[in-house]
Amino acid sequence: MTTIARSTDTLTRDALTVLQPGFVGTTAPDWLLRRIGEGLTSVGLFGRNIASAAQLAALTAQLRAERGDVLVAIDEEGGDVTRLEVRTGSSFPGNLALGAVDDTALTRDVAHELGRRLAACGVDLNWAPSADVNSNPGNPVIGVRSFGADPHLVARHTAAYIEGLQSAGVAACTKHFPGHGDTAVDSHHALPRIDVDLDTLHARELVPFRAAIAAGSKSVMSAHILLPALDPTRPATLSPRVLTGLLRDELGYDGLIVTDAVEMQAIASTYGIERGSVLAIAAGADALCVGGGLADEDTVLRLRDALVAAVRAGELPESRLADAAARVRALASWTRRARGDVAGPGADMQEGTAPGTDIGLVAARRALRVTGDAAPLAAAPYVASFTPVANIAVGDETPWGVGAELSALVPGTETGTYGPDADASEVLAAAGTRRIVAVVRDEHRHPWMSAALHTLLSARPDTVVIEMGVPQAPPRGAVHIATHGAARVCGRAAAEVVAGV
């Protein structure tokens, strides 16, 4: 039986310290401020918490009025996964676009500018970058969030991204360890399994994480995936062999280990969030991300009490919880020091706010791959946007496509949206005699999309095709434009080519 040497208050504070919860609303609720006063050290922000730069700065100031060293975290990858610009689309292309350019200086500059905008609004921990090697092109959740399928390309851009982000005073959280790229299942919905041997794992999945550690990533996020070669029974987030044996001991990582959201079904439906949280801390995790789906006080109290009870029952070593809490506080201290070296809260986060802040659009333009003769339009076109169901990481709140951007350049442009029941005859009828611009997203993953595009091109071979996902399918159409992502700036760059500007 473990002897409890510290007071209950200290134990409870440590349990609160390792949580990274979310909440609902654009101001901090009273319950959250109260728990910060009791020891909660981290808060996670999502799109639902952000309306504007000024509002975000006021929110982070409200949190820090309760505790000056509170960690304010966000899931801001840029590209398809954006929280800062959830209602408009991101000013930065995502990882696949940066990997397609393959200029590490550009990646570093993009990450620095993104970090500057985060820091200016009072955010100091970013759950990014994704260091997953997208070796499975059918992956339903990573895709354009990865720098690519080449481990060494992913490694050098992961390192550059970390350097750029942290030079702006924002801690990076490299994810999803030990690699989510070779999965065919989204861990938001179920537990993915990767059946590769250790040699493959070291030659592919772990290469970018070694680079991230060498680059000084302040935190690493674990994945809810099962790798039998490492641990045949427990997913990485809950595995001492993965988090302590591999990440800490073998790879020598000494920073903060954060879990992916514990309410994701890969954990919640198999272990439950309370048991899963205890097992994660025992395995070597230091902080528990929760709040994308469960964002209330009851969830915080359930997890706090589960950790305290586990220590009292001797199921979780008191020293392990204390060590985890100490690592959280150490990162909070680093970010507090770093905030003294960057712009204070309140700066605008849109393009054009400082010299070089159009770097996102510059990168998006460089990432385009155009096949065919991109002759300027003779008249306003009809944009047919073939829209798949968005995964949970991306969400369905953020607009994407080229319709709005093309309308700004070519007045009179009209757009129609088509889903899995798309009928090409509807597109043809709506377009009439206008030139058609067909916008797809991961055509190779959606047979209905590919079939509709085939029928459309058979009838109208002059159609322009814009692929805004992973360009795995062969280029088709009179002009084919691969944007390597669906960020707003990617749509703008493609629209410029179509409009001939």
Helix-strand blueprint:
Layout lengths: L7 H10 L1 E2 L9 H9 L3 E4 L7 H14 L4 E4 L20 H7 L2 H17 L4 E2 L24 H17 L3 E7 L20 H17 L4 E4 L17 H11 L5 E4 L5 H4 L4 H11 L4 E2 L7 H16 L5 H22 L19 H9 L1 E4 L9 E5 L16 H7 L4 E5 L5 H8 L4 E5 L6 H13 L4 E4 L11 E4 L5 H12 L2
Helix pairs in contact: 1-11, 1-12, 4-13, 5-6, 6-7, 10-11, 13-17, 14-17, 15-16
Radius of gyration: 23 Å
Strand count, sense and barrel status of the largest sheet are: 6 strands, parallel
Task: Indicate the proportion of strand residues.
Answer: 5-15%
Gap between N and C termini: 73 Å
Adjacency order of strands in the biggest sheet: 2-3-4-5-6-7
Q: Helical percent range?
A: 40-55%
List how many beta strands DSSP finds. 14
Pick out the low-confidence regions.
1-6, 341-356
Classification by helices and strands: alpha/beta
Mean pLDDT: 91
Question: Count of DSSP helices?
Answer: 17
Shape: globular
